[in-house]
Write a structure and sequence with these properties.
Shape: elongated
Strand content: under 5%
Mean pLDDT: 82
Number of helices: 8
Oligomer: single chain
Distance between the termini: 58 Å
Radius of gyration: 19 Å
Length: 198
Amino acid sequence: MIVAKDDTIKDDILKEAQKLFQQFGVKKTTMEDIAKAMGKGKSTLYYYYCSKEEIFDAVVLKEMGQVFNSVKQAVEKAVSAEEKLKAFTLTKIKAVQKKANLYKFIKGDMPDNIHCMKHVHAEYDTQETRLVKDILRFGISNGEFTKLINKELDILPSVIVSSLRGLERDMFIDARYAKLEPRMESIVGIMIRGLRNN
């Protein structure tokens, strides 16, 4: 019962913090602002989080977790390795675009928060790399993808995940690649042709 209540309060903190971060940016938002938005005292926030930066990390982790879960579900529904790889890439781009507001507030504060983002990304890079490796292995085992990529399985999944992460960064930090989503299917098709067992 206490655990459930704690989870509810933490969730409320993150919801209010996210709204304020989006509206005012991370720098201008204070612990007092978050507490006031919740109708609680600052002591409640400090009971669950040591600092505003820790809350920021938790907000980003929550958002990234939601993106990863939607990607994983789409991959699991797909039948072939090609479909799984397309699902991974296209669902990720769509999901990240839905979270675009989160990335907008990061833009202005990126220099101060870049250190936080590195460890947050590292956790999801590992999960995504594992998922891509599983897709590639599946494609090799069912004859869709060439066995030649077996010897590159230690690095190829990381290359795919890193490339996609770079596109996300450029989309939301530098506002490059407008209307990328419709073009991704063609880009993924080009990549898959290189993996196919011809």
